Each structure stands twice: as C-alpha cells, then as structure tokens.
Amino acid sequence: MSEHGSRALLAHLVGFATVSRDSNLALIEFIAQYLAGHGIEAELLFNDAGDKASLFATLGPDVAGGIVLSGHTDVVPVDGQAWSVPPFEMSEADGRLYGRGTADMKGFIACVLAAVPQLLAKPLRSPVHLAFSYDEEVGCLGVRPMLAALDQRPHKPRLCLIGEPSELQPVLGHKGKLAMRCEVRGLACHSAHAPSGVNAIEYAARLIGHLGDLGEALAAPEHHDTRFDPPYSTVQTGVIHGGRALNIVPAECAFDFEVRTLPGFDAQQVVDGLQTYAEQRLLPRMHAVDPGTGIRLQPLSAYPGLATAADSEAAQLLAYLCGSDAFTTVAFGTEGGLFDEVGIPTVVCGPGSMAQGHKPDEFVTLEQLDGCDAMLKRLADHLHC
Ligand SMILES: [Zn+2]
C-alpha cells in the first residue's frame, strides 16, 4: 500500500478529531497541502468564528459541467460510547479499518484524495470538483455558504456525487427533515388552585397529541411513495422538558419534534397545522386565564429530501461508475437535497455502511475502500480525453 493510497490517507484523516463541535482546520490544512503537492489550489470558506472551513478545489479545465465529489469532514462525538480501540487513531483487524469517521465519511474522502494523481495523469475533458464541508452532522450547516458561492459562479457542475456510506450501492434519494422546538408558556400557581394557573405541560400534551394526529394523516395510503421506508412522511416528538414539583402548576414546557418528509412534501404544512390548532383551540383558553401565556414554534434545523430520477444523466453515470442500476434510497439524510436545490443533480454512493456510522468501533472494510478506489478509477477513465 503506497503512502498516498486510500488506506494511508484514511489513517491521516481519522487522526484529526473533527467532531462537529471542534475545529476542522488541521484536517482542512492537511488536505489543502496534499492538493498543493499535486499543483491544485484549494479555496477555503471559513465560518464566522474562523475555526472551521470547507474546501473547494477544481481539477481539470475550469469550464461548465463536470462532477462534484462531495463529503463532510466532521464526525459525531464518541462521548459515552464504549470503544475497544482508540477512536481517533486508525487500526486494522480482519480486513476492517477501525476509527471514528472511517465509514461516515472519511473513507470516501480518503479515496477521493487517493484518486487525485490518477485524475491528473491525463488531461480531463471536464472538471472534477472536490467539495468538503463541515457541520454536516449538526444540520447540514457548513455546506450552505459553499453552495451559495457555487451558485454565483459563471458555470455550474453538471452533477454531484456524495460519498455517504451506501456500501457502494447507487442511491438516488432520501427523506428531508425539519426539526422544531415548541415552547409553551403557562402560569404557575399552587396546585391546590390549579384552575387559576395555566398548566404548560397539559397544553404541551395537547399539542403533542395533535402532532400525532397530523402524523397519522400523512400515513394514508394515497400519500405512499414505495421508494422510501416507511413509504410516507412521519412526525415524531423526541424531547420534552417541563415542571418543577408536583404541587406547582408548571409555567413552562418545551418539546422538540421532527417531520421526516418524502421529497416534494412541505413539512411547513405540519407546522401550520399545529399553529392553527394552537390559535383556534388552545390560546383562547390560555389567554382567558392570563394574556401573558403563549405558544412559540421555532425551527431548529432543516434539510430537503432528495429524489433524483432514475433516467437522469446523474443516475446513469452513477450506474456506470458503480456497476449497478439497482437504485435505492437511504434512511439517513445527506447534503444532497441542498446541492439539488441550487440546480446540481445529485446522487449518493460511498464505501462502508451506516450500520457502523455513529457507533462505537466504527469501521470500513478494506474491500469497500478498494471498491471505492475502483469506482473513482472508472470515473478517471471516463473523464480522460
Ligand atoms: Zn455522513
């Protein structure tokens, strides 16, 4: 295995502990220097705090078209997880490479970097763009400024390949997600006089019950899209906080919920439905006791779904590259919907499995890494003059 093979590069990348809450600059600097060593100048886009950056670089002619190879450089934390190997030091056993991010998704980035010399070995007919983001794991945040910059360029890439772990299966879609927080402000009083107060927990419970009803309506068979599992949009409340003592009517309750949407379904419909219910059924009763009470809804994060057509150029190229047109979808989200929104058709295919992502002893197999190297070799052959 050469010093610049995907395995050696992955070992370097895993060594940078780029948990989303921490800086990724050391890793970005490593990649920028690696590219500079091959005569490629990288463009860095820093966040406001200046402690994180995304990287964009172009191989080949700076003309319209071309393909974006995209991945996120951040990883999820290892706190509280029982790792049997050091998470930020790659180790190998039984054909597996262990370490945080090996599957999600530094394995793909390592393969892309390893393919750079190969891509540059002959003139390219159209460009290959590398787009590496940060803060993907906390709501697909870091890619947005890079996409805004990309949108301003005179010519746009023709398609984007996101190397999230799909076991190298060709993926054309996933659901979108909207995460929301709802804060109910009630009025506290001694519980012996409960009717003089406004019980924030009880009103939150009504709101959550109504969300359940809205979710049930989305599961009706006429809304089904069988490309996805489950084949309908879902609503789920996952966190709730409220109350201090049983003998105090609670003045505050907050809960977080999410809407996982089929591509094309606007999650705002659910939020609007909840808002209408609050305004018509709950707020008049709350205000009758105290006009200072209220219900506030605020978005936490959102990313759009992805549903690239099987007969599109992007899908056909992906089928060629990975040697399969058994197109599928994944349950997790990616930055793909955001690329798609700025007019860059996007597909997903990468080494490793999300069954190992976000878990202790995360790994990617050498076989998957080799498979990804082979896929990128086919891309190089396809793009060479
Ligand atoms: Zn990922």
What does this protein look like?
Strands 1-2-6-3-7-17 form a 6-stranded mixed β-sheet, sandwiched between helices. Helix 1 (6-15) packs across helix 3 (102-120), helix 3 (102-120) runs parallel beside helix 9 (366-383) and helix 5 runs antiparallel to helix 6 (268-289). It is 33% helix and 24% strand. It has 2 domains: 6-174 and 305-383, Aminopeptidase (3-Layer(aba) Sandwich), CATH 3.40.630; 176-303, Alpha-Beta Plaits (2-Layer Sandwich). It is built from 9 helices and 18 strands. It is α+β, with helices and mostly antiparallel strands. The structure holds zinc ion (ZN). Zinc ion (ZN) is lined by residues 72, 104-105, 136, 164. Residues 72, 104-105, 136, 164 line the site of zinc ion.
Low-pLDDT regions: none
Question: Could you give the order of strands across the largest sheet?
Answer: 1-2-6-3-7-17
Compute the number of helices: 9
Q: How many distinct folded domains?
A: 2
- What CATH architecture of the largest domain would you give? 3-Layer(aba) Sandwich
Note the run of SSEs as H and E: HHEEEEEHEHEEEEHEEEHEEHEHEEH
Kindly state the number of beta strands.
Answer: 18
Main sheet: strands, sense, barrel: 6 strands, mixed
What is the strand and helix layout of this fold?
Blueprint: H1 6-15, H2 25-36, E1 42-46, E2 53-59, E3 67-72, E4 91-93, E5 96-98, H3 102-120, E6 128-133, H4 143-152, E7 159-162, E8 171-174, E9 176-185, E10 189-190, H5 200-218, E11 234-242, E12 248-249, E13 252-261, H6 268-289, E14 294-303, E15 306-307, H7 313-322, E16 328-330, H8 336-341, E17 346-348, E18 363-365, H9 366-383
